[in-house]
Design brief:
InterPro entries: AraC-bd, Cupin_2, GPI/OXD, RmlC-like_jellyroll, RmlC_Cupin_sf. The chain is mainly beta. Helix content is 9%, strand content 37%. A 7-stranded mixed β-sheet has the order 1-22-19-24-18-16-17. A 7-stranded mixed β-sheet has the order 3-2-4-11-6-9-15. A 5-stranded antiparallel β-sheet has the order 8-7-10-5-12.
Length: 317
């Protein structure tokens, strides 16, 4: 019998040089975390807690107030939920096409193929948890041209091989490796600029709405029949106290449990473990286990499971 793998919130190892904007003022205090899978980090310094990918990647971003993540795009799904704080998400070529503010527990399935960024607009250190589609998270990050240019001015150069080089440390592009080319005007014209109402109505679910719908059964959040109707290679449910029976069950899918509120106890065989907010638990296929809150009070978690759907683009104009 294979046991679940657990990554504790308090044991997460941050990387402060994960992406090209690591030296850019306003973005230079970010901390990135790779929990499951290789993620999309451009730095060899990024620590990976669980290397085996269940068909998707799990990561997180921690930022102090007023710190922002620069405009970028992905070819596959990028789903965030707010664990701590208050966050503003914005999108478009210059970040001005639309925006939305998310509170703790809210979830956002950001449409593929648009430039997006986000910033902590709360008063304390904030944390957002991320689910990235695909085994290799879609082949990396596509940066808006101005992000690459700003980074170069502050000593970071992204090679066409997807690796960062820090000129402040005396690093240079290796022989035969050129800088990452900027997107052309023709290529940039293919990136959609959806309005706020187009995105908010289809790609966002609010925490307290989901909690109400999870009374007596899991709330299907992302999936063919979810609140957010998408099939990005995984599905997401929100569970609260009483959403599922406390009897053992099995599934032939990878199951990743990400605790939002309260404490949850996972039992398998003669073993048991208690999960706290921010903890991530990867349950392997075929393992009989049970899941229940361990104390009274508010309790919720996101459950992510792989599907047979391809991890491809989701946005349509």
């Amino acid at each position: 019998m294979t046991a679940p793998q657990i990554v504790r919130y308090g044991e997460l190892i941050p990387c402060r040089t994960a992406f090209i904007d690591a030296h850019t003022p306003g973005s230079d205090q970010k901390e990135n975390f790779t929990i499951i899978g290789g993620g999309v980090s451009e730095s060899p310094d990024q620590h990976v807690h669980i290397k085996e990918t269940p068909g998707f990647n799990i990561g997180a971003a921690g930022q102090p107030p007023k710190c922002r993540n620069s405009l970028h795009s992905h070819r596959t799904a990028e789903v965030f939920y707010v664990l701590k704080g208050r966050w503003r998400f914005f999108w478009g070529r210059w970040g001005t096409a639309g925006e939305v503010v998310l509170q703790e527990g809210d979830i956002f399935n950001i449409p593929t193929g648009i430039f997006r960024g986000f910033e902590n607009i709360g008063d304390d250190y904030g944390m957002i948890m991320a689910i990235l589609g695909g085994e290799d998270a879609g082949g990396g990050v596509i940066w808006a041209p101005q992000v690459i240019e700003d980074a170069r001015e502050h000593g970071l150069v992204l090679g066409e091989n997807g690796v960062l080089y820090d000129t402040k440390k005396g690093e240079a592009l290796p022989d035969g490796v050129g800088p990452m080319p900027l997107l052309t005007d023709r290529e940039l014209a293919t990136y959609p600029e959806p309005r706020s109402d187009e995105v908010v109505s289809k790609y966002i679910a609010r925490y307290w709405d989901m909690m109400a719908l999870a009374d007596g059964k899991p709330c299907k959040v992302i999936g063919a029949d979810g609140l957010i109707k998408d099939r990005p290679g995984f599905e997401v449910d929100l569970l609260r106290r009483g959403s599922i029976a406390e009897t053992p069950y099995t599934t032939d899918r990878h199951e990743v449990l990400m605790v939002m509120r309260g404490h949850w106890i996972v039992r398998w065989g003669k073993e048991a473990v208690v999960l706290a907010p921010g903890d991530t638990c990867a349950v392997p296929p075929g393992l009989e286990h049970s899941l229940a809150p361990s104390m009274s009070g508010e309790a919720s978690l996101y459950r992510v499971m792989n599907t047979d759907d391809p991890a491809g683009p989701t946005w349509t104009r």
